[in-house]
Amino acid sequence: MEQGAYFKYVRLSIPFSEAEIRLRSALQDESFAVITEIDFQEKIKAKLGVEFTPYLVLGACLPASAHKALRAEANIGLLLPCNALVKYISDDETEIAVIDPMISMQSVKNADLRCVADEVRAKLIKVMMRIEGTFEE
Fold it and tell me: Which domains does the chain have, with CATH numbers?
């Protein structure tokens, strides 16, 4: 697992469709619900008539954590859900990335949110470890 400025990611030697299945499964195993999906390949083609590589964003939510965050900060819904990305690199290489909620929440000056973001971050790290095959229960 690698760290970007605001996300964690892993590159896998698997096709896009398999990476999507692996991400969805890992999210589910850690109790995340996928509440939004954006297929940028489809949207860019439909709106701009431009071909684009497969690029899927899943908006994932831990309901209990989201509820805590909403109770702590009424407008936090602007920063929810946690986004996860499946990005085509080549026919046999795909990148999966997840947002680092500690980074996205640091602009909000509310100490209660740090605890929630820390909980979510720990779960997202487990998601990434499941995807890599390094998670042990």
Answer: 2-132 (3.30.310.70)
Average pLDDT estimate for 52-59: 98
Interacting residues of 81 by C-beta distance below 8 A, sequence separation 6+: 35, 36, 59, 60, 61, 66
pLDDT tens-place string over residues 75-104: 999 999 899 999 999 999 999 999 999 998
